[in-house]
Structures are given as structure tokens and as C-alpha cells.
Design brief:
- The chain has 12 helices and 12 strands.
- It is α/β, with parallel strands linked by helices.
- The protein has a domain of 146 residues: NAD(P)-binding Rossmann-like Domain (Rossmann fold).
- It has a 7-stranded parallel beta sheet with strand order 3-2-1-4-5-6-10, sandwiched between helices. The protein has a 3-stranded mixed beta sheet with strand order 7-9-11. A two-stranded parallel ribbon has the order 8-12.
- The protein binds serine.
Length: 315
């Protein structure tokens, strides 16, 4: 029988593209999209959709039983910038939804769980260049605290109850199909929209702020590779470091100028600058390379071209 998958938060930035890719791989009726709101047309027309709240255990359990689900991807979360504005709501959403899926796996109602962590688990005392897998982690944002706590719980459920939970610390993710929701790394998407619309952009991060980033195709590839990897190869059950490209707003603007010669950028850092300064500038992902043969495809130039091409096609 085909593998049956539930994607919670399927209409978000990652969820949309993950759902489309999993439907291609496993067949559309075997991948059930779940969200509290409807998604874009491509997503809604690509297969089954159910409305449910990720924090409602009973609602999620009912869907798992009804569709005889094997694997859950939990992509619902409140990101860094928004969670600073609504700390308790961010904590509640990010943690309760995780406990719901971990407990379903503990009770053997599903056999495998994917849960995303983030570079936000690191903090100002973390070494910022080529940040290692295991290092000092003192996150200073609500989002970072929730992701770091989540990682500890994932490892705990794996060790204590044998739950097959898999996770990646995503860098900032760059995509054109679905807008991101309230992250510190969102400037690297807005800049493309503005470059095409008005040929100028005011960045909310300062020109020299380097952050780890990744094109969405690479992030989806990594997620599917990790979920396909034999369990015995996985040495990390908290969350894997994942490196992609690392660049500053200035470097990204220069790359865009190669495609749009009269593009210009200026800088007006806001509260998100303070968040970005506590995060790594680049990531060491040796464990992902070793355990599941990770290698990214998109460098800065290839990502820039793909973003401009994708957005133009969508216009
Ligand atoms: N992209 C996320 C954010 O900026 C980090 O995981 O919040």
C-alpha cells in the first residue's frame, strides 16, 4: 500500500512546495494538505485539502485515523519577527503543535515525523562562522527558544519512546511560489519583488549582515532526502545543521544588478537587525553530508536567476 502523508501548515512558504513535491512523488491522493486557511490555487487544485488547527490534538488525530496516515510533516509555525510581537501565541502554536505530532508518534498512530527547526536556535554566544552542529546555544528570540526547546523534545521522544522524528535547522529560505510569513530573513525575498516592480529596495537589515540562506528547491530536496534516509544512518535526532549559501544584503543586491542594471538599494535597519545579529553568518553541515549525503545545488548566482525567472513567469 502506498505511503500516506499528512502535511500540517501545507499552505505556508515551505508547506506549499513540499506538498506539491510529495504529491509528485507519492501520488496526489496519498498526500493530505492541512491548514487553518486555504492556500494558493496551484496547491488547492493539486489534491486533497482539510481545514484544521495544528494545536487541536483531536482534529489532527481524527485526520490521521480517517486517512490512515503513516507520516506527518509539521510545517505550521510562527516565525521570528511575528513571534516577537506575540510571544505567548508564538510559544503556544510552536510547542503545542509539536507535542501533538510527537504524541501521535509515541502512541504509534503514525510511524515517522518531520519537524523543522531553524538557525534561530543559535544566539549571540554561538560561534558565528561555520557554526558547528554542537555548540553553545543561547537563543534570545521567542521563536529561537521554541525551536531549541522543540529540538530537545524531539531527541527526548526519540531516545525515550523510540519516535522516528527527523529535523533540519533550515537557513533563511528563498522562494517565489508562496510569500514567507514574518521572518527575519524575508528581506532576501522582498528584494526580488521590489527589484522587478520598482527597481529599488530599502533593506531592513544592514548592508554587511551575512546570514545563511538557501533556495527552496534545495530545502525541499534536503527534506525529502532526510525522510528517505535509513534510520540507522541518522546520528542526530535533535536537528541537523544545513548550510546553503551565505551572503549579505549588499552582495545580494550586487548579484541582482548583474540582471537588472539600474537596480538600487538603501538600508533602514529595524528591530529585525537585532535578531539577525544574534544568528550565525554561515553553517557547518558536515553531519548532513555524512549521514544522508547532503549537497546543495543553488549558489548565489543560480538562485538569483531562478528567482527572477520564476517571479517574471508568475506576473
Ligand atoms: N527564516 C526564519 C525567520 O527569519 C528563520 O528560521 O524567522
Amino acid at each position: 500500500m502506498a505511503l500516506k502523508t499528512l502535511i500540517i501548515g501545507a499552505c505556508g512558504q515551505i508547506g506549499t512546495e513540499l506538498t506539491l513535491s510529495l504529491r509528485e512523488k507519492y501520488g496526489k491522493d496519498n498526500v493530505i494538505a492541512v491548514d487553518i486557511r486555504e492556500g494558493n490555487e496551484e496547491l488547492m487544485q493539486s489534491g486533497p485539502f482539510e481545514t484544521a488547527d495544528a494545536t487541536d490534538y483531536k482534529a489532527i488525530e481524527d485526520l490521521v485515523m480517517h486517512y490512515e496516515i503513516d507520516e506527518i510533516y509539521l510545517m505550521a509555525a510562527m516565525l521570528s519577527a511575528t513571534a516577537e510581537k506575540f510571544p505567548m501565541r508564538g510559544w503556544h502554536l510552536n510547542m503545542d503543535s509539536l507535542f501533538n505530532v510527537l504524541n501521535l508518534a509515541k502512541d504509534k498512530k503514525v510511524s515517522k515525523v518531520f519537524w523543522p527547526s531553524s538557525i534561530a536556535v543559535f544566539g549571540p554566544s554561538t560561534p558565528q562562522d561555520q557554526t558547528p552542529q554542537t555548540t553553545i546555544m543561547e537563543p534570545t528570540t521567542v521563536y529561537g527558544i521554541s525551536k531549541q526547546s522543540g529540538e530537545r523534545w524531539c531527541e527526548y521522544y526519540h531516545k525515550k519512546y523510540g519516535v522516528d522524528v527527523r529535523s533540519i535547522r533550515y537557513p533563511g529560505l528563498i522562494s517565489y511560489k508562496t510569500a514567507p510569513g514574518g521572518g527575519t530573513t524575508d528581506y532576501a525575498i522582498e528584494i526580488f519583488h521590489e527589484a522587478l516592480a520598482s527597481k529599488k529596495y530599502t533593506s531592513f537589515l544592514s548592508e554587511e549582515t551575512a546570514l545563511p540562506m538557501m533556495f527552496m528547491d534545495d530545502a525541499i530536496k534536503a527534506t525529502m532526502q532526510l525522510m528517505d534516509a535509513p534510520a540507522e544512518n541518522l546520528s542526530i535526532r535533535s536537528s541537523y545543521n544545513l548550510g546553503g549559501i551565505s551572503f549579505t544584503p549588499k552582495q545580494l543586491a550586487e548579484e541582482i544588478k548583474k540582471e537588472i542594471a539600474d537596480f538600487s538599494i538603501d538600508y533602514a535597519p529595524d528591530f529585525r537587525q537585532d535578531i539577525a545579529e544574534t544568528w550565525p553568518s554561515s553553517i557547518d553541515d558536515t553531519f548532513a553530508q555524512k549521514d544522508w549525503k547532503w549537497k546543495h545545488d543553488f549558489d548565489l548566482q543560480k538562485m538569483t536567476k531562478a528567482m527572477l525567472r520564476g517571479l517574471k513567469k508568475q506576473a
